[in-house]
Amino acid sequence: MASISSSQDVIIVGSGVIGLTTACTLQRRLPNVRSITVVASEFPSPSPMIADSPRYSQALPISADYASMWAGAHYRPIPHLPASHPRYGSLTSQQQGFQSQLANEYCLATHTARIMKHLARATPEAGIEIMPGIEYLETPPPENIALKSGDVYAGDDDHFRVYTSAEMEALNKRDAHDGTGQIKWACEYETYVVNVHIYCAWLLQQFLQGGGKTAQKHLNSIGEALQAVPEAACPIIVNCSGTGLWDDPKIKVIRGQTVLVRNQYHSTITRQCADGTWSFLIPRPLGGGTIVGGTKQVSDSETCGRPKERQTLLENAVKYFPDFVSAPKDFDVVQDNVGRRPWREGGMRIEMDELKQDGVKLPVVHAYGAGGRGYELSWGAAEQVCELVGRYSRLQSRL
Ligand SMILES: Cc1cc2nc3c(=O)[nH]c(=O)nc-3n(C[C@H](O)[C@H](O)[C@H](O)COP(=O)(O)OP(=O)(O)OC[C@H]3O[C@@H](n4cnc5c(N)ncnc54)[C@H](O)[C@@H]3O)c2cc1C
Ligand SMILES: *[C@@H]1O[C@H](CO)[C@@H](O)[C@H](O)[C@H]1NC(C)=O
């Protein structure tokens, strides 16, 4: 087990899925730490499905920048080309770099999947559910085509299966009258989905029950976190601020508009169309309705839902997933959701850093830039942060 000096305090900036998972992991893995405080401007809010409850009507609206409240959220793996693959050598060095990022994310995602599935079984009240994942691709990349039924796709025991050409033909025939594109690759596997409101509140509750502290404060810089926890001794700060303290030129936000409906679907299903658009359904466990998605709009700063986008999303869901509802008017719409994915070129930054604050060195561990994958990478990322915090603290204690 990693150790930390008992005179040290940890301050985590950010109460999104990355900050909260990190808080719970540090608490468990570094029991000697003096205190852990989560400082954030926004904390988990209840689901809009319970809008008539007094707690909700008193809650402040959440901003589009608090990505964790706007995610689906499901786990949909992104396969990578291993360095041993015959095609790997012909990739440009930039493409190889991207493949190694995906390989790294694959490790984080499968580690996370093991924990999420365990939580789904052991603590269903946490809002995670194991469920079939289905994908229809119109232009599959070589990484997908290389996969065979029985391969590990989403993690151990995922029952991964590639559709036969006869199955795809039947789907394409079914869709033909809509002028829909052709499915060229499809698969099915076991995955998990998350009710983001319930899950993040559950993480926060675990943390508080374990003795964690919180402070609500908007910071203009990472260093201001010290003012929120004035009693902190030899603090280590963990930067899980998503995009809220944005000065990293590698960050781009990607707008996502989805529709939350009360209708409950039975699987998480994604169609990737040839024109680059996506259509997906992500059921939210414990009666949280279904997310009908979704757009991916780079650097689009509109935070309101666009009615035209809602219409397109609902129409596509009817067209592509005909066993859900038979017409857009049959959807019982709760609201449009608009959130911003904290995307970062090169992937998440999980790194030790040292800032100068009033002439004093302030250790900071960064953990931001999860893009559209924050939930699926969360436990793996938290584990790496924990390693860095533990290693830093051991070094300090030897000086
Ligand atoms: C439409 C959509 C669909 C998505 N679907 C999925 C999915 O299916 N699966 C998946 O894994 N991921 C999905 N994501 C991505 C996921 O939501 C993000 O990757 C994840 O939420 C990032 O979490 P985070 O903790 O890094 O940041 P955030 O959730 O943005 O949290 C940031 C925290 O930092 C605090 N903060 C920021 N700045 C300051 C400041 N200056 N002062 C004080 N506090 C501050 C905020 O208040 C907040 O508490 C989706 C995202 C969107 C938008
Ligand atoms: C902290 O996180 C933000 C993203 O919100 C990033 O842009 C910034 O570079 C990080 N570091 C500091 C010192 O704020």
UniProtKB/TrEMBL annotation:
Its cofactor is FAD. Residues 9-388 form the FAD dependent oxidoreductase domain. Pfam families: DAO. It comes from the Eukaryota. Keywords: FAD, Flavoprotein, Oxidoreductase. Gene3D superfamilies: D-Amino Acid Oxidase, subunit A, domain 2 (3.30.9.10), NAD(P)-binding Rossmann-like Domain (3.40.50.720). Belongs to the DAMOX/DASOX family. This is FAD dependent oxidoreductase domain-containing protein. The lineage of its organism: Eukaryota, Fungi, Dikarya, Ascomycota, Pezizomycotina.
